[in-house]
């Protein structure tokens, strides 16, 4: 019976026949045109890219290295190239509400042209205005408007001065303005002379001065009113001249942008602003007061800065919709930023300092974001959702959320948004967002699920070879011989621990191609051989297995107690896997069980010490179900058992040791010693069926290496679940040892089969009367449990009290 459970060498690995690949070198193969094994994800991504309904943004999920990001961007580039380029966006000054700049939409590629046109317009306006106001015609008309007023004012002032002189008064300027003062000898009377006058003279002088002062003030008020009227006339003249001088410039530009209504309206507002502010625009640079220290002071030409254009987004001459990948999706990088500058100790800004974000750049196309990175940025995810829900890009700065000082800021007009967002992340992140964020369900309705493996068939093998050829051509590497490609394909199966599938984590496959090419050059080969690939695999292991070798050394020196020879009751070698990043290795652990009289059931020391995880605890509780289901049909189970992984100080997780735990308990109860040359892995259910586990290759190889370092005896091996046979991709050294009979691998389906291999004693099948054949494992276990029950009932022992009762026909049951 045991022989039929032993696996043959050809069952331990899938071997690729290089003769069936259909080529001798990858140099003859074409580049890979389509992704490998991602038909479902590609179809979902294509659906999400092309559907135009709201909320059909895409979440690309899958393990890192499956090409989820690169493939998504390649498909987006292809789709974007077939779509029209979106329009351009610019920001301009808002003359009605200066703190709310206006956003203007322009045809694709015309934003920069519009900016240049406006810059040219401003230069032309300055030149035309200067020429118009320096012309003789304007000067004559202005002088004509001012001449009458000046002559009348001068005549009245001259007549008043004569009247004052006749009254022995003079007109002069003082701190309070133009004043009338008493005179002496044609000069202003001094206070001393005034004090020497008689009271009567002083009163007469004061009366004449007051009368003249009132008359003077009335005359000045009349002059002021006339001056104001003249200024209005002059301003009208200036506006008339300005409109005549620059109006044709705006008419020409409005004709050029006649189809853009908002642009034409903005041009009209600029012309009106020039006309309304013509007096300020005519000021000269030399009229600006010089400051004793350099500070930001508005110049006479600063009004012209309001007429410029801030190009926010320009598609340029290229065709197609944009595809934007934002690697640092902060809220500023997503929605844009308003910069500030320092002016007279304050932070100020204007419409020219508005900067675009990724949503602006991707508008009309596609935006690709790493989901985890997005969620790590404060407020970025919420800002993205608001933009998608409202279909508007509103600039939201993080500094506006936490502003600690008052600054001059803007509220730019939001821009209409039409973008398809593609989030790239892990499956765990997708399901978390789907379950806990209602907005996510509404906004990301398309899931593109990238698989970590693909079925091994002829098409996949051919495409794998094309992938190798593509990497070689793209990176200038030597090409691969067919046997070398076959070795890569075998390693691709090994990476997913499945003879029927290949990995789609092409980042790992590409690394293997590069490293094999390196060893090819190191060995002086023109083509990469299978030996070069094998060398690359071995060197990768050598760079990663320091801890594995250190633990094996400790075992060889006896620091970690393990047995690989002889037989022991209640003791078995259990196998575990230790993951170290990109390298996993198997490690044997001594598992010991002690059984005695009591009703406490199975007690796991590691569990009591809180060194086990939930999955391991589930496997342990399953053992109790098995024991009760098989041996407690007629009376309650009277059993106390203690289990422990010896010399273990780390967390134990997973249920792959549950079969080993059960073997140890049954060996202790039956008094049947277990061969220490075997190691066991596999979970067990309550019916006694051995179930598949993970890491089967690493576990087998870990135990094989431990046995090899102590010396292979030909009586050593590993028990694995039969359902794991299809996952075997063992290294050639193990297969060679199996072929030579130095090592064995058994595939068991039930606990009974495993017991027979480990103990060499038949397990025994239950008869109709409920008994088992004499001398079988199950009969010995039943007899021991009956002795435990009789001893417990006869002595009235407390639960868990040890009493090493002897099983029937066995004197060495417990240790």
Number of helices: 28
Shape: elongated
The main pleated sheet reads as: 7 strands, mixed
Fraction in helix: 40-55%
What is the residue-mean pLDDT, rounded to a whole number? 87
Oligomer: single chain
Structural class: alpha/beta
| Spatial ordering of strands, largest sheet | 23-24-22-21-26-29-30
Q: What is the number of E strands?
A: 30
Distance between the termini: 29 Å
- Indicate the low-confidence ranges by residue numbers: 284-301, 797-815
- Share of β-strand residues: 15-25%
Rounded radius of gyration (Å): 47 Å
Question: How would you summarize this macromolecular structure in one to three sentences?
Answer:
With 815 residues, the protein is of the alpha/beta class. 46% of the residues lie in helices and 16% in strands.
Explain the overall architecture.
There is one protein chain. The protein has 815 residues and is of the alpha/beta class. 46% of the residues lie in helices and 16% in strands. The chain contains 28 helices and 30 strands. The strands form 10 sheets. Strands 23-24-22-21-26-29-30 form a 7-stranded mixed beta sheet. Strand 21 (571-580) and strand 22 form a beta hairpin. The protein is elongated and about 155 Å long. The chain starts with a helix and ends in a 20-residue tail after the last helix. The relative contact order is 0.10. Mean pLDDT is 87; it is low at 284-301 and 797-815.
Q: How are the SSEs placed, and which strands pair?
A:
Layout: H1 2-5, H2 39-50, E1 58-61, H3 68-81, E2 88-92, E3 102-106, H4 111-133, H5 136-166, E4 169-174, E5 177-184, E6 187-188, H6 191-196, H7 199-256, H8 261-276, H9 278-281, E7 310-313, E8 323-326, H10 331-335, E9 337-338, E10 341-343, E11 346-348, E12 354-355, H11 358-362, E13 366-370, H12 371-376, H13 380-390, E14 392-393, H14 398-401, E15 415-416, E16 420-425, H15 427-436, H16 438-443, E17 446-449, E18 453-455, H17 458-475, H18 482-496, E19 501-503, H19 506-522, H20 530-544, H21 546-556, E20 567-568, E21 571-580, E22 583-596, E23 601-604, H22 605-608, H23 614-631, E24 640-645, H24 658-670, E25 674-675, E26 678-680, E27 683-684, E28 690-691, H25 696-710, E29 717-721, H26 732-739, E30 744-748, H27 751-759, H28 777-795
Parallel strand pairs: 1-16, 1-17, 8-13, 13-16, 21-26, 23-24, 26-29, 29-30
Antiparallel strand pairs: 2-3, 2-7, 4-5, 5-6, 9-12, 10-11, 14-15, 18-19, 20-25, 21-22, 22-24, 27-28
Helix pairs in contact: 2-3, 4-7, 5-7, 7-8, 18-20, 19-20, 23-24, 24-27, 24-28
């Amino acid at each position: 019976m045991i022989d039929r459970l032993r696996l043959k060498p050809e069952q331990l690995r899938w071997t690729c026949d290089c003769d069936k690949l259909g080529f001798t070198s990858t140099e003859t193969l074409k580049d890979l045109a389509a992704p490998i094994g991602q038909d479902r994800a590609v179809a979902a991504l294509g659906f999400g890219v092309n559907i135009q309904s709201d909320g059909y943004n895409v979440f690309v999920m899958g393990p890192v290295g499956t090409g989820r990001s690169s493939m998504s961007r390649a498909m987006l580039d292809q789709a974007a190239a077939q779509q029209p380029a979106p329009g351009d966006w610019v920001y301009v000054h808002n003359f009605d509400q200066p703190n709310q700049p206006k956003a203007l939409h322009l045809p694709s590629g015309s934003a920069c042209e519009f900016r240049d046109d406006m810059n040219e317009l401003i230069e032309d306006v300055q030149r035309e205005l200067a020429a118009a106001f320096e012309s003789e015609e304007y000067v004559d008309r202005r002088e004509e408007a001012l001449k009458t007023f000046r002559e009348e004012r001068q005549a009245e002032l001259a007549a008043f001065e004569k009247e004052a002189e006749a009254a022995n008064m003079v007109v002069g300027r003082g701190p309070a303005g133009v004043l009338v003062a008493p005179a002496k000898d044609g000069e202003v009377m001094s206070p001393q002379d005034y004090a020497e006058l008689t009271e009567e003279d002083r009163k007469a002088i004061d009366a004449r001065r007051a009368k003249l002062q009132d008359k003077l003030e009335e005359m000045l008020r009349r002059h002021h009113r006339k001056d104001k009227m003249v200024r209005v006339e002059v301003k009208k003249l200036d506006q008339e001249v300005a409109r005549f001088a620059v109006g044709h410039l705006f008419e020409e530009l409005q004709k050029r942008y006649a189809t853009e209504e908002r642009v034409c309206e903005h041009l009209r507002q600029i012309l009106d602003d020039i006309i309304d502010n013509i007096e300020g625009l005519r000021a000269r640079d030399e009229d600006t007061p010089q400051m004793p220290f350099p500070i930001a002071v508005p110049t006479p030409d600063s009004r012209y800065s309001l007429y410029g254009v801030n190009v926010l987004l320009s598609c340029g001459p290229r065709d197609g919709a944009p595809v934007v990948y934002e690697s640092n999706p902060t809220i500023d990088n997503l929605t844009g930023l308003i910069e500030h500058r320092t002016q007279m100790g304050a932070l100020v800004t204007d419409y020219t300092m508005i900067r675009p974000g990724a949503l602006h750049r991707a508008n009309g196309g596609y935006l690709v974001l790493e989901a985890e990175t997005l969620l790590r940025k404060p407020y970025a995810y919420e800002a993205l959702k608001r933009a998608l829900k409202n279909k508007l890009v509103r600039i939201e700065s993080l500094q506006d959320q936490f502003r600690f000082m008052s600054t001059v800021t803007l509220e730019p007009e939001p821009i209409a948004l039409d973008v398809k967002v593609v989030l790239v992340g892990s499956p765990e992140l997708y399901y978390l967002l789907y379950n806990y964020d209602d907005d996510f369900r509404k906004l990301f309705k398309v899931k593109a699920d990238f698989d970590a493996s693909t079925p091994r068939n002829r098409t996949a093998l051919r495409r794998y070879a094309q992938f190798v050829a593509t990497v070689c051509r793209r990176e200038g590497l030597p090409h691969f011989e067919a046997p070398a490609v076959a070795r890569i394909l075998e390693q691709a199966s090994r990476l997913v621990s499945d003879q029927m599938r290949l990995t789609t984590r092409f980042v790992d496959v590409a690394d293997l191609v590069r490293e094999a090419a390196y060893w090819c050059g190191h060995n002086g080969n023109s083509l990469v051989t299978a030996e070069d690939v094998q060398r690359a695999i071995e060197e990768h292991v050598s760079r990663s297995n320091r801890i594995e070798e250190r633990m094996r050394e400790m075992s060889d020196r006896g620091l970690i107690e393990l047995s690989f020879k002889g037989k022991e009751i209640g003791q078995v070698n259990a196998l575990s896997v230790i993951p170290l990043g990109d390298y996993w290795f198997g490690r044997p652990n001594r598992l010991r069980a002690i059984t005695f009289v009591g009703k406490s059931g199975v007690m796991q020391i590691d569990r009591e010490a809180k060194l086990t995880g939930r999955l391991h605890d589930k496997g342990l509780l399953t053992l109790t179900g098995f024991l009760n289901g098989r041996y407690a049909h007629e009376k309650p189970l009277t059993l106390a058992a203690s289990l422990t992984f010896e010399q273990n100080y780390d967390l134990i997780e997973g249920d792959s040791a549950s079969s080993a735990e059960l073997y140890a308990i049954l060996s202790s109860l039956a008094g049947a010693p277990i061969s220490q040359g075997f190691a066991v892995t596999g979970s067990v259910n309550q019916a006694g069926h051995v179930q598949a586990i993970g890491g089967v290759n690493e576990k087998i190889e870990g135990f094989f290496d431990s046995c090899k370092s102590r010396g292979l005896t030909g009586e050593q091996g590993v028990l694995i679940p039969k359902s794991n046979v299809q996952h075997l991709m063992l290294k050639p050294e193990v297969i060679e040892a199996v072929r030579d009979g130095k090592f064995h691998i058994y595939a068991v389906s039930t606990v009974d089969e495993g017991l027979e291999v480990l103990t060499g004693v038949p397990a025994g099948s239950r008869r109709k009367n409920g008994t088992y054949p004499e001398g079988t494992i199950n009969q010995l276990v039943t007899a021991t449990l009956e002795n435990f029950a009789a001893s417990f009932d006869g002595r009235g022992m407390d639960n868990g009290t040890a009493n090493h009762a002897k099983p029937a026909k066995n004197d060495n049951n417990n240790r």
